[in-house]
Specification:
The protein has about 280 residues and is α/β, with parallel strands linked by helices. The protein has a single domain (about 5-265), classed as 3-Layer(aba) Sandwich (Rossmann fold). The chain has 10 helices and 10 strands. The strands form 2 sheets. Strands 6-7-8-3-9-10 form a 6-stranded mixed β-sheet, with helices on both faces. Helix 3 packs across helix 4 (about 115-130) and helix 4 packs across helix 5. The chain is globular, with a radius of gyration of 20 Å. It binds adenosine-5'-triphosphate (ATP). InterPro entries: AAA+_ATPase, ABC_transporter-like_ATP-bd, ABC_transporter-like_CS, P-loop_NTPase. This is ABC transporter ATP-binding protein. Keywords: ATP-binding, Cell membrane, Membrane, Nucleotide-binding, Transport. One of its GO terms (molecular function) is ATP binding.
């Protein structure tokens, strides 16, 4: 029954109010692999994660999670699907009034009826997986940014998800912690048989650990493939992105009124921004 794609977007269109963020997006995230979702700021990467989690629904197209269209699920089915997903947001957002152990135990206590002895074993196992079994008694204020990220990761995998989605897992980390976090994501993916989806701006580190890269630009998919294939792309959008150039076909301006409308410049030949 298992197809190669664990997540698949088929011609997905999504707009906040009237503004199209994704306009005909198709890509696949292979089962068991690490897929990186990249692209310019505001390009809709977090929106892709929200579509998969069913927090928002596509106006057209299909968002398939293990073959099920998330947009068509009723509340119970959506809840069941979400139980199979782990989410790790930027700064992990640990509960500051709970120690490391209780932070990781939280989803288990919240979503299962497991006896406390079992909760303990699972928490220690997850903390061990991220190298922090010895830090269980510490409060969030006593751990470094990199450690906090690892605690959040242990919490995200507490319920044994099949898919883990990371939104900017490396933001704000120093190069060493960043390398550690990246290798940990890779290792956990392989050791636990997960499928991982990473939204990240850190090109080098992300390309190093990803099996598959999807580049979003101007509402569509500008490229997808192995990191090597994406690096070798001749598409100008991808080239601009991979080489971190400010000038190129990716829009710099957030869509809005043209310059004439805001500043009343008339006939001076200044090109207004697209209002798309
Ligand atoms: N709830 C919302 N209502 C209206 N517009 C929104 C909402 N959430 C996001 N947007 C807009 O949708 C666009 C895409 O946002 P999204 O967060 O998906 O982009 P992103 O690629 O993850 O960006 P970044 O890399 O900067 O985090 C942005 O222009 C954002 O301003």
């Amino acid at each position: 029954m298992s197809s190669a794609a664990f997540i698949e977007f088929r011609d997905v269109r999504f707009a906040y109010n009237e503004r199209a963020i994704l306009d005909g997006v198709s890509f696949a995230a292979p089962r068991g692999k690490v897929t990186a979702l990249m692209g310019a700021s505001g390009g809709g990467k977090t929106t892709v994660l929200r579509l998969i989690g069913g927090q928002v629904r596509a106006q057209a197209g299909q968002v398939l999670f293990d073959g099920q269209d998330v947009g068509q699920l009723d509340n119970d089915a959506l809840y069941a699907a979400r139980r199979r997903m782990g989410m790790l947001f930027q700064f992990g957002a640990l509960f500051t009034d709970m120690n490391v152990f209780d932070n990781v135990a939280f989803p288990l206590r919240e979503h299962t009826q497991l006896p406390e002895v079992l909760v303990r074993d699972i928490v220690l196992m997850k903390l061990d997986a991220v190298g922090l079994r010895g830090a269980r008694e510490l409060m969030p204020s006593q751990v470094s940014g990199g450690m906090a990220r690892r605690v959040a990761l242990a919490r995200a995998i507490a319920l044994d998800p099949e898919l883990v989605m990371y939104d900017e897992p490396f933001a704000g980390l120093d190069p060493i912690s960043l390398g550690t976090a990246a290798r940990l994501i890779r290792r956990l993916n392989d050791a636990l048989g997960l499928t991982s989806l990473i939204v990240s701006h850190d090109l080098d580190e992300t390309f190093r650990i990803a099996d598959h890269v999807v580049v979003l630009a101007n509402g569509g998919v500008a490229a997808q493939g192995t990191p090597e294939e994406v690096r070798a792309s001749t598409d100008p959008l991808v080239h601009q992105f991979v080489n971190a150039q400010a000038e190129g076909p990716v829009r710099f301006h957030h869509p809005g009124p043209g310059i004439e409308a805001d500043f009343g410049v008339g006939g001076g030949g200044g090109a207004g921004e697209s209002s798309r």
